[in-house]
Amino acid sequence: MKDHYDIAIIGTGPAGMAAATVASAHVADVLIVDEQPEVGGQIYRGITRQSIKDRTILGDDYYKGQNLAGAFAASNVDHVSGATVWQVSPEREIGISKDGAAHLLTADQVIIATGAQERPFPIPGWTLPGVMTAGSAQILLKSSGITFSNAVFVGTGPLLYLIAYQYLKAGVPIRAILDTTPKSNRLKALPHLPGALSHLGSIMKGWKWIKALKSSGTLFIEGIDDLKITGKNSTEAIEYLVQNKWHRIETSNVFLHQGVVPNVNLAMASGCVYHWNEQKLCWHASTDEWGSSNVPGISIAGDGGGIGGAIAAEYQGRITAYQALYTTNKIKKQERDINVLPTRHALAHEMRIRPFLDAMFRPAVQFRIPTDDATMVCRCEEVTAGKIRASVSLGCAGPNQLKSFTRCGMGPCQGRFCSLSVSELIAEARNISVNELEQLRLRPPVKPLMLAELANLSTFASEDT
Amino acid sequence: MSPAYDAIVVGGGLVGSALAFGLQREGLSTLILDEGDIAFRATRGNFGLVWVQSKGIDFSPYAHWTWESAETWAGLSNLISEITGIDVGYQRPGGAEICVDDKEFAAKRQKMEKLQSHSPHVKFEMLDQKSMAELLPGLSPDVAGGCYFSGDGHANPLNLLRGLHQSFKSMGGVINSDAPVNDIVSQGSSFTAKTKKGEFHSARVILAAGLGTQNLANKVGMDIPVHPDRGQILVTERLKPFLTMPLSKIRQTIEGSVQIGDSHEDAGLDVGMSTPILNKMAIRAVQMFPHLGNARIVRAWSALRIMTPDGYPIYEQSEQHPGAFAAVCHSGVTLAAAHALQVPKYIKEGTLPTSLAPLRTNRFKKEMAHA
Amino acid sequence: MHEIEMNPSPKVSIKFDGQTLQANEGETVAAALLRQTHLAFRTTAVTGTSRGPFCMMGICFDCLVEIDGVPNKQACMTYVENGMRVKRQLGAGDTGVFLSDEEDTQ
């Protein structure tokens, strides 16, 4: 690692890989950092050493990542893997810890491409061992070929149907699929359908997955109104309410999913402004058409700024990289514009399906804001919905104050799995919109850093990069 | 015209809340006017020590004032618990300051002997590494030892603040948040505090607004010099208890997380972080407790201490406008008991006692006269 | 557990709470434990409740285990190595020094 780079990119998912490939074609000093040992982010996890023999299990969309990874591998970028970025200061001082030591370096331009995470799904019992996200099921399948027989898949959204379909293709028995998509979403999504028709292929693909799952004999129940996972020390069963009647399924494994949301912590801690988006029910980066944030020299690309999917992320990565090259005088305006124009068109096309998806798979309010007060909202500090509501009635006005009332948000996840639920919960309790509520203040270290690593801080180039 | 209060306290941090608590308890109807969460809120950066052994080494009035507060702290904690059920996490197991080498050890001993010479209640012990390690398992074999004093302790500053606020409200006190005071006008025997939320009238006004005190003090004939001193804190994940007592630079909370602190910097009003300073703090922490190297930091923040020119508190009543008081200090936790249980009596009577006279601002003028 | 047909990969041997188990080279500790159907990796510091991996991507911090004496390690972010000693983390982690119940200050 050097102590200064022209362009530093955080994250080796599609946005990061695309940005690095563009940037390094024009510039000598490009750094890209990721916690994982291999590239791909989450969506293309395991793409460089995929050892599942049957390619039809994961599907063509996944293997598209190989082209991107190949181009990246051929590029001239300084790739630091297995490294945690614990800070990007507003002055673009980047803190990286790797192999027991912490390093500080600077860059003229930083592109934050930290991707997406699963939306929290706070229902009773969601903290029991055996309950994982649909994303976890994907990671276990892609990285290790591990699957769980007779699991129950719960929730809504394309990624839920995708992993269930991948299980089906792999011949793994599925105990049940409990679909929580509110029936009323269909009517609300209808006006967005014409705009999404340019993606008829994708829509048909998703519909094909659902049809295959339904006709496979797998128990597929729609219109789920309420959920409870039960078990003493581990998952034993899941209960669901449909048409006013409770049912129970025994299982040791539950996979939850109700959409993905931007992984905002690094960008927010760097000072980047995010605004609440009521259609997407999450925070969206306030960036311009170049991905530039309000912080000079810091831009955001890919799902980390707003959900658009893997292909859109790639396009955004390219656009921010061209802008970064132009801003650091590596290319002229004309070259930037010529290269960016077709990418912009392609990106606009990619985004046309989003309003339809956002409306069709909008998670139901009872699965975002728990009605059962005993439901755990802050997993790290074990704070329930009831405790949060009680704090509001004692005068707690927002998520920052909530920390001193309940320690909610003070755990290692730094609000990643609770701040969405907490914000909606407090806003509802105070009868205001999430927009009017203060945002959770995020600060470095964005990921934990060992004290010994901080003690071994180096600001010089390390001998063994 | 809003109802007149017996007292308005400007500033709802640790100092203001403790004073307001005490005033309300003394039967004075009290209003706290607070800037709200946009304030620098020094409270948030407080380390949480209820600390005697390093206070007033060169200034006995401060040493004695600190001792009075430390000795009555348990009483404050119990009161808050009785009124609200809130546990402020107060413990008094004693406290230690570790000296990494013989030079530090000799310097600390010298300071403590000086302190004891005017404050005999500070019965400290200088312990070598072996004796200190018996008190503090995991202490590095390479340190020289340190100073132990049984009268030191710690508490949770945020719980304390919440406990003070809630007790205050339970006793009938009123808090107005999001109400920065922009002007104070004295009219004969009463004061008007002006905010964008309206005007409030009282017989007395107490300025405890941290860094904002000077600006308001000028309006009622006082000169209260304060400047920001930045302190940074590192916090680890919860660990199984290993620290039997707080140290000057490290303490373990009841929840198990370890706080590392006590840096000082002149950084103006910047509440950003300085990684070189965090690096030094980490080095020192690992130097004292090598096993802590494997602990992970999950939070770090900085806050601005309220520093007076000599570091000692200021308690002042305006000569031009009697009934207007100011109180500032950087030890909002240690002095919370004195602020809650003693100072309000003086404010009610209308006179600060002679014991607190050395903590008035004329001490700065004396120094300037000498310079 | 249902295993998909994969290209063979070299095996690695690790210990979990003293028990030896086989893992695939290049996989995470979490995957190795889940393959053996160990769903719970720790108990929480606040209430002693059982927890296991949830997100598998390093952001939920529920898969914390002690690895070779170091506490609070995310099993899903740590890759298996021959001879690695993994232990369930019971309550808060400890970095090798902690008070026994009698010594605990009150």
- CATH overall fold name of the largest domain in chain B: FAD/NAD(P)-binding domain
Radius of gyration of chain B: 21 Å
Question: What is the helix/strand order of chain B?
Answer: EHEEHEHEHEEHEEEEHEEEHEEEHHH
Number of strands of chain B: 17
Structural class of chain B: alpha+beta
User: Main sheet of chain B, how many strands, which sense, barrel?
Assistant: 8 strands, mixed
Helix content of chain A: 25-40%
In short:
The complex is a heterotrimer of chains A (465), B (371) and C (106). With 371 residues, chain B is an alpha+beta fold.
Structure keywords:
heterotrimer, A: 465 residues, alpha/beta, FAD/NAD(P)-binding domain, Arc Repressor Mutant, subunit A, 3 domains, 8-stranded mixed sheet, 5-stranded parallel sheet, B: 371 residues, alpha+beta, D-Amino Acid Oxidase, Chain A, domain 2, 4-stranded antiparallel sheet, 10 helices, 17 strands
What does this structure look like?
The complex is a heterotrimer of chains A (465), B (371) and C (106). With 465 residues, chain A is an alpha/beta fold. Chain A folds into three domains: 4-117 and 261-331, FAD/NAD(P)-binding domain (3-Layer(bba) Sandwich); 120-258, FAD/NAD(P)-binding domain; 369-436, Arc Repressor Mutant, subunit A (Orthogonal Bundle), CATH 1.10.10.1100. In chain A, 34% of the residues lie in helices and 22% in strands. In chain A, strands 1, 2, 3, 4, 5, 6, 20 and 24 form an eight-stranded mixed beta sheet that branches. In chain A, α6 (158-169) crosses α9 and α11 (310-327) runs antiparallel to α12 (333-351). The longest helix of chain A has 19 residues, at 333-351. Chain B has helices at residues 14-25, 60-84, 102-118, 129-135, 157-170, 213-219, 275-288, 336-341, 343-349, 362-370, and strands spanning 4-10, 30-33, 49-50, 95-99, 125-128, 145-149, 153-154, 174-176, 181-187, 190-195, 198-207, 227-238, 250-252, 257-260, 296-307, 314-317, 324-328. Chain B folds into three domains: 4-80 and 157-226 and 310-370, FAD/NAD(P)-binding domain; 95-150, no CATH class; 227-307, 2-Layer Sandwich (D-Amino Acid Oxidase, Chain A, domain 2), CATH 3.30.9.10. Chain B has ten helices and 17 strands. In chain B, the strands form four sheets. In chain B, strands 1, 2, 8, 9, 10, 11, 16 and 17 form an eight-stranded mixed beta sheet that branches. Chain B has a four-stranded antiparallel beta sheet with strand order 13-14-12-15, with helices on one face. Chain B has a three-stranded antiparallel beta sheet with strand order 4-6-5. With 371 residues, chain B is α+β, with helices and mostly antiparallel strands. With 106 residues, chain C is mainly beta. Chain C contains one helix and eight strands, in the order βββαβββββ. Chain C has one helix at residues 29-35; strands at 2-3, 11-16, 19-24, 42-43, 50-51, 64-67, 70-74, 85-90. In chain C, strands 2, 3, 4, 5, 6, 7 and 8 form a seven-stranded mixed beta sheet that branches. Chain C is globular. Classes of the chains: A alpha/beta (465), B alpha+beta (371), C mainly beta (106). Chains in contact: A-B, A-C, B-C. The interface between B and C is medium-sized, with 21 and 18 residues.
